[in-house]
Design brief:
Chain lengths: ~190, ~300
């Protein structure tokens, strides 16, 4: 079997009220170390939970984007052969050719931070430092006309960004088809 | 949001009480191309993103009891150890119902491409939620609105709104013989056969048409029929040298009937991408060649 470091399963999070005074049934595992929890990366909640310290500007993001992102996503976020379009598509979601971008579709700016941080750049995911992620997210939001040139992105400002399609998602109503009884099969 | 956060080795996980389940696993985007037209030329390229395996592992509920889930928790954020650390939000109710921390597949350790050494298995849910190379589970009071549950794996409706957290895979079937790309060598008796499955339980019935959907007859089902598992169906059929347009439709134990493509498009438009489970028609031509119906 493999080692703990590769396979650590950390069920972590601090909270308040307990459901019941349960005791472990098998007593397996041990408390994760702070390094282990850090090593698992930061999942970012829509309310900004998990966002690290640091900040980034649109101008910083513009430079970074040109160096790290434009080769796939196009010079202005219009998309390319490899990377999806990040900009545009406003007003297309209800048409026969919807263009789903950060600006037209993504409901939370925190998701952009989370995804850039964990998955970009495509050839070296995890490369960017927190302030670089803030900067490139600021630039992408600015390209979409969502934030102004002088707005700084950090753990306080990012969760307050109102995305254009924030209210564009609805709960799953299925089964919406498939409920009619089919003709009885012949015996 | 747990009383006792824990770090576990694989050896520790494998000493916990385990179960084995046979389960279908289908990509949420299987048959995505059929939203536009039923032009998938063969089974693999139209309905092929599905598999069925015997999974062995520890019920997630066992570990949740172990850590002591607090009252405020309602979601589990699962993260993989791939380069992009793919993450999905899973409702706590599902995790407690039947999610599995699987380390075995078909009697051996899960292979690297399938998520070695540990994979989250969510029975009956779209494949993407079955996070491979699982290395972290985090209890939260909200979904994290990850890229793969907002930008991807949400279903865009004609009004421009997108359905979110559409985890459930519904009943589906496809005739595998005769099917696109195959050729019947001549007139005579054949055994028409295919696969049916549902993310919601057992397959109750499968019906087959050989006249383009005008009439349907019940097929024989291979036993045992397991819930959320591929079920083979069969029917003897005499090909008389005249063109036949054939299809199957599955009915699961909840009474859900696999819909037609027309029903799906009428309800959801053509921009959904995911969760296409419409009936698949094949055209058996007079010379025995088999093709898709929407050329």
């Amino acid at each position: 079997m493999s080692t703990r470091s590769a396979l650590a399963l950390a069920i972590a999070f601090a909270g308040a009220a307990t459901l019941a005074a349960q005791s472990p049934r098998f007593g397996v595992g041990r408390p994760p170390t702070p390094d282990e929890v850090r090593g698992l990366g930061a999942a970012i909640a829509p309310d900004g939970g998990g966002l690290p310290e640091g900040s980034g500007t649109v101008a910083e993001g513009r430079t970074l984007y040109a160096a790290r992102c434009a080769s796939c996503h196009g010079p202005n976020g219009e998309g390319g052969g490899v990377g999806a379009a990040l900009v545009g598509g406003k007003g297309t979601l209800a048409t026969a050719r919807p263009l789903k971008t950060v600006g037209s579709f993504w409901p939370h700016a925190t998701t952009v931070w989370d995804y850039v941080n964990r998955a970009m750049p495509f050839n070296q995911p995890g490369l960017l430092k927190p302030e670089e992620v803030y900067a490139v997210v600021a630039y992408i939001l600015n390209l979409n006309g969502i934030i102004a040139e002088d707005v700084v992105m950090n753990a306080s400002t990012l969760p307050t960004v109102k995305m254009p399609n924030r209210d564009g998602f609805v709960a799953d109503p299925r089964p919406d088809v498939g409920l009619t009884n089919p003709r009885k099969p012949k015996p | 949001m747990v009383d006792r956060p824990i770090s576990l080795t694989m050896a520790e996980i494998q000493r916990l009480p385990s179960i084995t389940r046979t389960l279908v696993l289908e990509c949420g985007g299987n048959s995505a191309g059929e939203w536009a037209a039923r032009t998938g030329p063969d089974v693999q390229r139209s309905y092929g993103l599905v598999s069925c395996s015997e999974w062995t592992g520890v019920p997630l509920a066992t570990l949740l009891a172990e850590v002591g889930v607090q009252r405020t928790a309602s979601w589990v954020i699962a993260e993989g150890a791939d380069a992009c650390r793919m993450e999905r939000s899973v409702p706590l109710s599902k995790a407690l119902e039947n999610s599995l921390l699987a380390y075995g597949q078909n009697g051996e350790m899960i292979r690297p491409s399938q998520g070695y050494p540990l994979r989250l298995i969510n029975p009956g849910w779209e494949g993407n939620t079955n996070v491979k190379w699982l290395h972290s589970l985090k209890l939260t009071n909200q979904p994290y609105m990850a890229r793969d549950e907002t930008s991807k794996y949400s279903d865009l409706m004609p009004d421009g709104k997108a359905r979110i957290f559409t985890y459930q895979m519904e009943a589906k079937s496809v005739i595998t013989f005769p099917s696109g790309g195959q050729t019947l060598p001549g007139i005579g008796l054949y055994e028409l056969s295919g696969l049916a499955w549902s993310g919601k339980g057992k397959i109750e019935r499968v019906e087959i048409t050989i006249d383009g959907g005008r009439s349907w007859v019940a097929a024989q089902l291979q036993e045992p029929r397991l819930p959320i598992a591929l079920t083979r169906f069969r029917m003897p059929w005499r090909f008389d040298g005249r063109e036949a347009v054939i299809a199957s439709r599955a009915i699961d134990e909840t009474g859900y009937v696999q819909p037609s493509r027309e029903d799906l498009v009428a309800a959801r438009g053509g921009n959904s991408i995911y969760h296409f489970n419409g009936t698949k028609f094949w055209r058996v031509q007079a010379d025995g060649t088999v093709t898709n119906v929407d050329a």
